[in-house]
UniProtKB/TrEMBL annotation, chains A, B:
This is NAD-dependent epimerase/dehydratase family protein. It comes from the Bacteria. Pfam families: NAD_binding_10. Residues 7-188 form the NAD(P)-binding domain. Signal peptide: none annotated.
Amino acid sequence: MKVLVIGASGRVGSDLVEKLLADNHQVIGTTRQDQQLFDADNYSQLNLDITAEKDDIQKQLADDIDAVYFVAGSGGKDVLEVDLHGAVKTMQAVQDKGIKRYIMLSTVFSLDTSKWGNPAIADLKDYYIGKHYADEWLVNDSTLNYTLVQAGALKEQVGTGKITVNSDKAGENAIADVAATLVAVLDADSASKKVFHIQNGETPIKEAIASL
Amino acid sequence: MKVLVIGASGRVGSDLVEKLLADNHQVIGTTRQDQQLFDADNYSQLNLDITAEKDDIQKQLADDIDAVYFVAGSGGKDVLEVDLHGAVKTMQAVQDKGIKRYIMLSTVFSLDTSKWGNPAIADLKDYYIGKHYADEWLVNDSTLNYTLVQAGALKEQVGTGKITVNSDKAGENAIADVAATLVAVLDADSASKKVFHIQNGETPIKEAIASL
């Protein structure tokens, strides 16, 4: 498949691109950096500014893209422009371009504000608000075939290939397993129009995705 | 009518409350300040924190409120918590309480992102993004009988009682005329489920509202 990864230089994004390339997908990675991030025949790169106007974003999208990942993040520095409005503009551009599949990496309990009293979340309140309204747009206002993958704290841990889905409590996530989960949902019918959260766990990723 | 004014100490809010009191409405003004803002038999005050959880906001709402005004604003200092999520939580609380009428003061072109290249708006981008998603929630996701009044730059000018509605260009607004417009839409059928912007102009306010 031809896949666009928005935020290819990030911690999850770079691992995701590597895995997609290894699976022989044609990958376009977006970054604001000039240097080429990956050296592979099936990789190309796009300098995409998601703070630009929606129509300018749309013009930069290739016609034959099959699926889009959003794994960009402002790191809390520009939540309104990047995590909220930047994300929604990419959804609108993708939708108006006629691309159907959109996979969003988000954060655990982004849609469930009743869980926001948790101290770990309260410290990230602005970030949660930004992700919340972007995720709400995707789920309630778009016509995209979305998958919304919500992760907890991202850790530089060795991946195990195993996760737990939709636990009542937030947990940690090995970045490699988040990236592997994003790859696994790409063409999984069971993940179509699904919202779920993941953490380090005991179920092989493919099996966890099949059970959604 | 019994009317709740969220943001009663603001420049528009205080003028709005005065006009509603003069019209013999029962007014509850919300503020974070301790001192009583107005001395009138038909005025009472509520210390309402819109950064609290939605259920806690809802518990503070009287059962017999007929209409709610949202004229609060963070002044750009807390856009995510106040102008966006705080506003939406008041909509949700009002709706879940069974109150139907909700009147929002917003900013010109809040829903029309194609106009955001205008330099005056570009300087206020974060504020516009916050207002945009709050206004979208009101118009697209709520079941409230809303009126969304969008004003341009607010000025301490003498009110003329006249406005122009839905000009192609943004303009200035005498605060007194914004407050008078908000009063005029309160029970105007023509303003039900309407979005419009106002500026200083030539049409008497009642006539302008009747023509919506």
